[in-house]
Amino acid sequence: TSALVWFRRDLRCFDHAALYQALRFADRVYCAFVFDTDILNALPERRDRRVEFIHASLGELDGALHALSLAAGGQGSGILVRHGRAVDCIVQLARNLGVSQVFTNRDYEPAAIERDRQVAARLAANGIALADFKDQVIFERGEVLTQSGKPFSVFTPYRNAWLKKLDDFQLQPYPIAKYAARLAPKPLGEVLPALSSIGFEATDLAMLPLPTGMRGGKQLFKDFCTRMEGYRQARDFPARKGVSYLSVHLRFGTVSVRELAAHAHRRGGEGAATWLSELIWRDFYHMILWHHPHVAEHAFRPDHEHIVWDDAPELFAAWCEARTGYPLVDAAMRQLHQTGYMHNRLRMVVASFLTKSLGIDWHLGERHFARHLNDYDLAANNGGWQWAASTGCDAQPWFRIFNPVTQSRNFDPQGRFIRRYLPELARVPDRFIHAPAAMGTADQAAAGVHIGVDYPAPVVDHTRARQRTLMRFSFATAKN
Ligand code: FAD
Question: Whose CA is nearest to atom 23 of ligand 1?
Answer without folding.
Answer: 380
